[in-house]
Structure formats: C-alpha cells, structure tokens
C-alpha cells in the first residue's frame, strides 16, 4: 500500500540527463518534471548519477545502471 511514487523510470532518466548538465538548475528541472527538489535529490546526485533510491527504481525494472565518472 501507501502513496504511489512520483518517480518512475522515464522521469528518472530525464532527471539524470538534465542533472548531468553543469549549468542545470535543480529547481527548474524539478518544476519541469512536476516533482520537488527533495524528490529529485532523493534519486539523483547533482552530477546526474543515481543514488541508492534511483538504483532501486532502475533495478525494479530489471535494469542495472552503472556510471563511471571520468
């Protein structure tokens, strides 16, 4: 039960892409995705990589996301 998550695979992928832009502003990204900045940062780091909660969403769909920061 409980409240449905506002974050799904598609939204998470858009958030990752947007946050990977160094000129991106988190509040603008969150508004475009209809989520709060708190929700955004729950799933994605400031550089666009996934946090544990983001990995859980991706793994829920049977995918493994691993990123290497160069």
What does this 3D model show about the protein?
The chain has 70 residues and is mostly helical. 49% of the residues lie in helices and 0% in strands. The protein has four helices and no strands. It is globular, with a radius of gyration of 12 Å. The model has no long low-confidence stretch (mean pLDDT 87).
- Shape type: globular
Helix content: 40-55%
Poorly predicted runs are: none
Number of helices: 4
Helices and strands, in N-to-C order?
Answer: HHHH
Radius of gyration: 12 Å
Mean pLDDT equals 87
* Biggest sheet character: none
* Beta-strand percent range: under 5%
| Total strand segments | 0
Structural class: mainly alpha
- Ends: how far apart? 40 Å
Defining traits:
70 residues, mainly alpha, 0% strand
Produce the secondary structure layout:
Layout lengths: L8 H11 L6 H7 L4 H7 L8 H9 L10
In short:
With 70 residues, the protein is mainly α. Helices cover 49% and strands 0% of the residues. It has helices at residues 9-19, 26-32, 37-43, 52-60.
């Amino acid at each position: 039960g409980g409240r449905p998550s506002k974050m799904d695979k598609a939204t998470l992928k858009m958030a990752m892409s947007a946050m990977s832009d160094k000129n991106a502003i988190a509040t603008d990204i969150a508004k475009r995705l209809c989520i709060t900045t708190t929700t955004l940062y729950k799933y994605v780091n400031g550089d666009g990589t996934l946090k544990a909660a983001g990995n859980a969403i991706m793994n829920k769909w049977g995918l493994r996301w691993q990123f290497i920061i160069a």
